[in-house]
Amino acid sequence: MKVEIITIGDEILIGQIVDTNSAWISKELNKAGFEVERITSIHDDEKQITETITQSLLRVDVVLITGGIGPTNDDITKNTLCKLFNSTLVFDEYTFKQIEKLLADRPLALNELTKTQAMVPDKATIITNTVGTAPITWFDVDNNKVVVSMPGVPFEMKKVMSEEIIPRLKKKYKPNSIIHKTVLVSGYPESALAIKIAEWERNLPKIIKLAYLPQFGIVKLRLSAVVDCDYNTIVNEIDIEIDKLKTLLGNSIVSDEDISLEALIGKILASKLKTLSIAESCTGGDISKRITSISGSSRYFKGSVVAYDNSVKTNILDVNIEDLQTEGAVSESVVRQMAEGVRKLLNTDYAIATSGIAGPMGGTDDKPVGTIWIAVCSESECIAKKFHFKYERNVNIERTTQTALLMLLEVINQN
Question: Model confidence over 53-109: pLDDT tens digits?
Fold first, then answer.
């Protein structure tokens, strides 16, 4: 059972916004057993919408559309779908009541344009949008195919996909189960890891497929299988292969589940009843953002100091002013003192500190752009390492953050 996703909106094609909807939809469909065949982004243009949907229906069973169904004049998807499927717009009292209820405390938002959202195609199944004004339309097309039009607003789309669309698709098509299990490996570049596990990979059962998903400092190994037989048997086969991989790679495996570094660190800190603080200079709060993106992080994360200016390093983190003057802010001595300073200031078990030259300005012959010092401290030790990333600013910050989290994970696992 194959699916295509169409995102509609000029703002996507001119780079004004990033299409995150398609990635999320694909992930959720895959978990439900559906295969995404193609993802297409097109303009708010009647001809493009018509041609794209028509061609998609020749290839796949389900076409999922996001965008182009708001109350403004440039949102034309609803009218185009009516023409394509010989439907007429009719006023739907229930949809209008839902819009009135949603906008009860926003009287200015309930206007003539908003009311047009209650005009719906008479040949479509209408699915209520409980968090927005644009209803969802489901068209049953000839040959047991489906076209669904949803809002482009991510939180509206996610809610209806989770609660309505995927359950309806599963009931209609009864897809096979798809099993994914992921192992996180650190310490190996992708190519070196492929060489290390080549024999193991060659001997994998034919039903199990392996994918390499590299990130900076981490390679995710995803083992997948499409299950049309006994589910538990296949799960057991995958688990056996993961056990073989653990024997082969040892401590290089940092997790046997698909989890972010910040979530993994949080899980370990919470289980050990340990706490964390952070002192950030060149990363400007990026590490703290990653840590606090995890719900429940207040259990283990006490806070951070963004010590961008040297006066903050000396006055708040107790960094020696002479070390700043003689060695500079981007130095081993300073980053160690930053880590120890924030750990003592916030009374935590662990601390991270970063100091570096993210670029594009600020580099010198001795300390070019991309020179980064990272320190991670516990009560018993403090390690500091120097790195040269040599990329553009955002990438340098991203890699510093990822490296700092990996260093912290290593220290936590050793304690």
Answer: 999 999 999 999 999 887 776 678 999 999 999 999 999 999 999 988 988 888 887
pTM recorded for the entire structure = 0.84
Could you say which architecture CATH assigns to the domain 2-173?
A: 3-Layer(aba) Sandwich (3.40)
Q: Is residue 152 within 8 Å of residue 162, measured between CB atoms?
A: no
Indicate the Cα dihedral angle 77, 83, 85, 86, nearest 10°.
Answer: 150
User: How many Å apart are CA 282 and CA 269, to the nearest integer?
Assistant: 25
Q: Which fold has domain 261-414?
A: Maf protein (3.90.950)
Which residues of the chain carry a pLDDT beneath 50?
none
- Supply the CATH classification number for the domain 177-255: 3.30.70.2860
| Residue 287 identity (one-letter amino acid) | I
229: exposed, middle or buried (Cβ count in 10 Å: 0-12, 13-18, 19+)? exposed
Q: Where in the chain is the domain with CATH 3.30.70.2860?
A: 177-255
